[in-house]
Amino acid sequence: MSNDAATAEAAGTAEAPPPVAEPIPHGLGASLPPADARAKTEGTFPYAADLWAEGLLWAAVLRSPHPHARIVSIDTTHAREMPGVRAVVTHEDVPGAALHGRGRADRPVFASDVVRHHGEPLAAVAADHPDTARMAAAAVIVEYEVLDPVIDPEQAFEAEPLHPDGNLIRHIPLHHGDPDASGEIVVEGLYRIGRQDPAPIGAEAGLAVPRPDGGVELYLASTDPHGDRDAAAECYGLTPEQVKIVVTGVPGATADREDQGFQLPLGLLALRTGCPVKLTATREESFLGHAHRHPTLLRYRHHADAEGRVVKVEAQILLDAGAYADTSSDALAAAVAFACGPYVVPNAFIEGWAVRTNNPPSGHVRGEGAMQVCAAYEAQMDKIAKKLGLDPAEVRLRNVLATGDVLPTGQTVTCPAPVAELLQAVRDFPLPALPKDTPEDEWLLPGGPEGAGEPGAVRRGVGYGIGMVHMLGAEGADEVSTATVKVQDGVATVLCAAVETGQGFTTLARQIVQDTLGVDEVQVAPVDTDQPPAGPGCRGRHTWVSGGAVERAAKMVRTQLLQPLAHQFGMSTELLQIADGKITSYDGVLSTTVAEALDGKELWATAQCRPHPTEPLDGTGQGDAFVGMAFCAIRAVVDVDIEIGSVRVVELAVAQDVGRVLNPAQLTARIEAGVTQGVGIALTENLRTPRGLIRHPDLTGYALPTALDTPDIRIVKLVEERDVVAPFGAKAVSAVPVVASPAAVASAVRAATGRPVNRLPIRPQAAVVTAG
């Protein structure tokens, strides 16, 4: 063997150098993976349905089969006498406040004299087996005098009062500009938005454990633990200090995750029996118990000039709140304030009402109020374009809002509002290729594989939707959050009562601390009500106020860390920087690692974040009601079989203003999820309630979009124009795609069929084009 051959053989058998490890994502701007990802994929994540306690009893709730009835009597004798039953509670057993509610305390813990909606709780049972508890609940005998339900919100104005507070929850008249203004053309429309359910992946569940001091601990997937604690304490006749809520893993939340109608009976049974009590709702009970999106009736009239510029908008908006007020006042404020959309409208006259009916209760669901009006005002923009023979995107561009413009509420838009840039980005993005008319591509037809559609009946349409939402609470809501950051032995811990609902707060908190302190290992402590309040997890609150509180606390710890070094070298802490785990001075004289600077120290700080105040809308709908706003433009491409009315969403192109990208992978996932939810709202999701009864309360009858229904989602542009009043300059990203995508899909179906498409979800008959 030659020397060259020997050398080659030795090289081939030598150990290869170890692969270079890829750097772990770190700090703001990196795609840091979620800390709980592995536990969730391995099935070890601690959801409430998995909890257990020694001596556990099981709970079941008896719910009304009628949407409206007078209660003649409730007999619990047979249920109490069943073997294994430990307690039965009704309205007579509530020791504290009999009423509760998120927005307004108007809902009874248990119905006492009248039931106002299908599924309203009347009694709860604790037993030694879940089957026994359910049988005992069914054994409670309730005698009803069935009443005619009020199911049409328009009838609620003239109907007999369904509640001591009356049928009208709120009326907002908005007056802006000249009522006599008019345009050269006028377009009108009547629009209906159906009832959607948040349909969380995991149904409601909880565990209540009595405490030796006479209090109770509730283990729940709560998204507002302090609010739920205070409501529970009122109901139980206890002080807030005697009630503790521990937040378990949240199995998905695009609304108020845990209805208090599940929580309150649970704690009552634990206090009554002195034993831990667990409740796991069936999917049917979940549909009956929690709040849904407000069904909405909208009447619109737009005046425009010959160039397509909007002169005046007149609208009437009617929200069906169901049996109780919940957060309907907030939803109505958003609907009225954003009724004209992200467009400059010099004259606007909007009337909005939220009324009680005997339909299931409505409440907070992602994009509430804003989604309903977006579907209507975007349909009106399509009508203006059609009447003038203009391109729909061009009509929108002639009217879009920008920073410095004034909303119909009189509030000046001070945050970045790059609406024109967003719309131009989706308009100019290349359209998807047309499918080939061959048997191999039949799966591309509306209706899916083996579908009834014929290629010759398919029409393609392109449409647009531009949405806007407000961030944080509105109309004077005190938005505040508190966080503590501790560093010990090189490990940072964040304590904040902001609940991780899937929006990525725990990941963001880790990134903030890594970025500020240069510490790699950051842990986020579990949430309970022993911590200071952080508020509910909705409208991007935790990105803003809780993320802001974490940032401020981390910066205070950073100052504590750097002060000794700055003093030693005779300079201020502002002249020192932390990057890649190292501390360096501006002149290079000082260079050390964060680990060396900590050197066994324990540092901690607590801080709050409170955005600037807002004000309620006045008697004419005027006021600076919102802290900030976010915008999104979507172009939808659909294929419609005009003979059978089936719709396939081919592609959704998305452009969104995000302020600043804090976690690219997480942000992309949130936008894609919001768009997909919007597709469901546009085409399939409709919780039907004939005569006030929830029909098919299951995930077979309620058609959620699946992976097969999800179109190609192209995020074509993210505008990073930082909002100067927001921590990190970032904006919430989840809600506004939900708002814009249903409107875009409906617009595309209109373009394909020439039909008005004035109802969501879009029914097949609305997309059928008859010959002649």
Structure keywords:
772 residues; 29 strands
Give an overview in words.
The protein contains 16 helices and 29 strands. Helix 8 (328-337) packs parallel to helix 9 (370-388). It is globular, with a radius of gyration of 28 Å. The termini are far apart. 54% of the residues are buried.
Helix content: 25-40%
> How many beta-strand segments?
29
Which sheet architecture does the biggest sheet show?
7 strands, mixed
Oligomer: single chain
Topology diagram in text:
Elements: H1 3-13, H2 37-42, E1 57-63, E2 69-75, H3 77-81, E3 85-89, E4 99-100, E5 107-108, E6 114-115, E7 121-127, H4 130-139, E8 141-146, E9 168-176, E10 185-193, E11 205-210, E12 216-220, H5 225-236, E13 243-247, H6 260-273, E14 277-280, H7 283-289, E15 296-304, E16 310-320, H8 328-337, E17 347-355, H9 370-388, H10 392-397, H11 419-428, E18 458-474, E19 481-488, E20 491-496, H12 505-517, E21 522-524, H13 541-568, E22 576-579, E23 582-585, E24 591-593, H14 594-598, E25 602-609, E26 626-641, E27 647-657, H15 664-683, E28 712-719, H16 735-753, E29 759-760
Helix pairs in contact: 5-6, 8-9, 9-16, 12-13, 15-16
Task: Characterize this entry briefly.
The chain has 772 residues and is of the alpha+beta class. The protein is 25% helix and 25% strand.
